[in-house]
Amino acid sequence: MAALDAALTTCRACPRLVAWRELVATEKRAAFADETYWGRPVPGLGPADAPLVVVGLAPAAHGANRTGRMFTGDRSGDFLFAGLYDLGLVNQPASRSVDDGLTLHGVRMTAPVHCAPPANKPTPDERHTCAHWLAAEFTLMMPTMRSIVALGAIGWAAALQALRDSGWQIARPAPKFGHGTEVRLVSPRDRSVRLFGCYHPSQQNTFTGRLTPAMLTEVFGRAAQAAGL
Ligand code: SF4
């Protein structure tokens, strides 16, 4: 996994996203003017043998694109890590920087698009171009992976595609995303993984009450139990 993560951080396959991540890293937000932005693809975070995998959307321009750590440096991440902490899945309630001592317990966090997109919206072509990274990550995690939480419909579709790309036969039409939805997927070798849907902890969802802390921990609690955590 370390080799995969290292290779990922040099990827320049999406011209629009490469230009955006580097422009943001140069111009910076005033509040972070004295920081050096990461400005590169953000690799997955957490142990390679984690039984629970979280699939988000993409790094935030001034969040993970700044700190270089998945879900770190923005309010979405704050909301998510607080929920994981409540469930004992991480050793501290917030993730601030790559050297803050954070340790995930049995959880790996990743994304279907590893570079910050303008307006947080990757194009279908960019999602397609980045998909092989998630498939490779899933392949490495397959021996221990027991459950997946997809944060939003894009993460859900990407997780299903990554399983397909790893040789799993996913029924068509594919199961649909919904908050709280749980699907059991079975591999040709009779291994099973449970896929859970959870609204993305974006401010659009958390500020409006569409996603509450209780809703998030309810889904993650079930996913953790299914993963044996
Ligand atoms: Fe590479 Fe993915 Fe970033 Fe595109 S989004 S440049 S495929 S890492």
TrEMBL record:
SMART domains membership: UDG, UreE_C
Protein's UniProt keywords contain Iron-sulfur: yes
Keyword field contains Hydrolase: yes
Record's keyword terms, sorted: 4Fe-4S, DNA damage, DNA repair, Hydrolase, Iron, Iron-sulfur, Metal-binding
GO biological process: base-excision repair
Domain Uracil-DNA glycosylase-like, residue spans: 43-220
Pfam family, one: UDG
SUPFAM superfamilies: Uracil-DNA glycosylase-like (SSF52141)
Gene Ontology molecular function: any one: 4 iron, 4 sulfur cluster binding
Coiled-coil stretches: none
InterPro entries linked: UDG_Type-4/5, UdgB-like, Uracil-DNA_glycosylase-like, Uracil-DNA_glycosylase-like_sf
Domain of life: Bacteria
Family in the record: Belongs to the uracil-DNA glycosylase (UDG) superfamily. Type 5 (UDGb) family.
Name of the featured protein: Type-5 uracil-DNA glycosylase
